[in-house]
Amino acid sequence: MFLTLLKRELMLARRNWVAVLIPLFFFVIVVSLFPFAVSPEAEFLQQIAAGVVWVAALLAVLLSLDLFYRGDFQDGSLEQLLIMASPIQVALSKVTAHWLVTGLPLVLISPLLAGLMHLNYAPNGAVEMNHTPIMMLSLLLGTPTMCLLGAIGMSLSLAASRNGMLVAVMILPLYVPILIFGSSVITASLANSGYNAQIAILAAILLFALVLTPYTTGKALKVAVS
Q: Is 225 exposed, middle or buried (0-12, 13-18, 19+ CB in 10 A)?
């Protein structure tokens, strides 16, 4: 049943591909504007690259949350899905589809933005190191967690008017640890210091969210349609 639900979510996302691409374009545009707005100097851009990329990724994920929940709630499909399958399966299929069409593309396109932000820049005489894989790894661990936590906020606020602002108020504080440790992974890599602890913390947060979120989101969805 989970695979059937996941296939349904991916098919709906494919039909609404324009809305799916908006968070990705937002991510690219926000990062691309920084060299024009702040400074084109490679050394300066490298120093702020971690924060810029992670803040842009966080906002892009937050922007995409409404896509996977609001439509099904408004047309009554969500209630039928909860009758056909368990709330946990419904919640997990939506979160998985959300990450596949939103979070994963952010990870895959990040090397392009790493080049734009001169992430691998080395001063004269210094040995150039490739920090892009480290950035991709941090996003690979952080974006699923943001999708999982965002699902909780979205499911809790489905019945509320102007739920976008409500989701932001509820979820942004939970995103702060992910933002801190995700950007610190890149910062530590740039400083040629250890980042295993930050990676381990990101992985632990992801596992915790993966265990807790499907049950919590499923219960919240059930309450929203009752």
A: middle
**Torsion angle of the four alpha carbons 15, 16, 18, 22, in this order, in degrees rounded to the nearest 10:** -140
Domain count, the chain: 1
Paired tokens of 148: 């999982």
Collapse the DSSP code of 125 into the 3-class scheme (helix H, G, I; strand E, B; otherwise coil) and give the result: coil
Q: What is the pLDDT along the chain (226 residues), one digit of tens a residue?
A: 778 888 888 888 888 888 788 889 999 999 999 888 887 888 888 888 889 999 999 999 988 887 777 777 777 777 777 778 888 888 888 889 889 999 999 999 999 988 888 887 766 645 567 888 999 999 999 999 999 998 888 887 776 655 556 777 778 888 999 999 999 999 998 888 888 999 999 999 999 999 888 888 888 887 777 7
Domain that holds residue 74: 2-225
**pTM (2 d.p.):** 0.89
Give the number of other CB atoms < 10 A from CB of residue 212.
13
Max distance between CA atoms of the chain, in angstroms, equals 66
Block residue for tokens 């593309």: 105
